[in-house]
Design a protein that fits this description.
mainly alpha, 75% helix, 0% strand, globular
Amino acid sequence: SVIASLDIDTDGGENPTGGFLVMVASTANLLSSSLFITGMAGNPIVASKATSIFGIEFGFSDWVVGASVPTLLLLCILPPALRLFLRPRVNYAQLSREIRRQHLEMGQISSNELKLCGTLLTCLVLWVGSPYFGIDATVVAYMAIVVLTLLDVLTWDDIVKNYKAWDTFFWLASFITLAEQLSALGVTDWIGNSLSQSLHESSPLVCTLTLALAYFFSMYLFSSISSHVVAFAGPFFAAGNILGCPPKLLTILIALFSSMAGVLTPFSTGSVAIYASCGYISQPRWFLLGLLSAVVIIGITFSVGMLWWKILGWY
């Protein structure tokens, strides 16, 4: 890893360089998860709730187009911002030597790696072109697994032993069922009505931004992004529907903030908790940096993002 290459003591407590690396890695993971509908387990739930409540199709291509500009800009802005606050000290000469050494050890790209790249590119084409090909994103994913198995890139043992994937599969199925039952029993509508009552005198645009902000900071109440999505995406969409919020605008805001809100705490999701457990940043400092990152995220989303979505005609 990069941390090992820099000879950072993993048992040495707080360290500005290690802290910078884990914060950047954690933040980049959350931002990249918001870029694609396939980036995080809760993303398909956001899309399905938008479809059931607003009656719109918000598929892979809509998600990527809407998320691309603000997310890619944040990926460029947040690392320098974190560097400013953490001030890491890096021996670039040592790092350069280590990179060259590891590059030589890697050798040439293998045939299995080429097969994997080709399969992933095909998946991306099918996901982006799903409205034209008529193939559901889930079917494309299953087709990729079958192809990789037939090409001997994966073995059946690899698939069976990947317990984390199976764990996600069963939990996601449970979350989707729970979300559907919350709607069927009227819980989503009740929460949506309660939220809308406090905003009924505001304009649809103000209501949209207020709901998005409330959704973002409600992440403080959760230790799982998927649980946050299941609990609140439906009710906030229901409130937006009652208040006349622009459907695609509210959908992309909830879609982005579902993952991006994970910056707020060191326990927001499993990957963040792993980075936080490295010990390079104290928990109080992580909360502070998370809040500062949230200010940057909201600022970019409500400025550059809003301009981009205006160009797309989403409000």
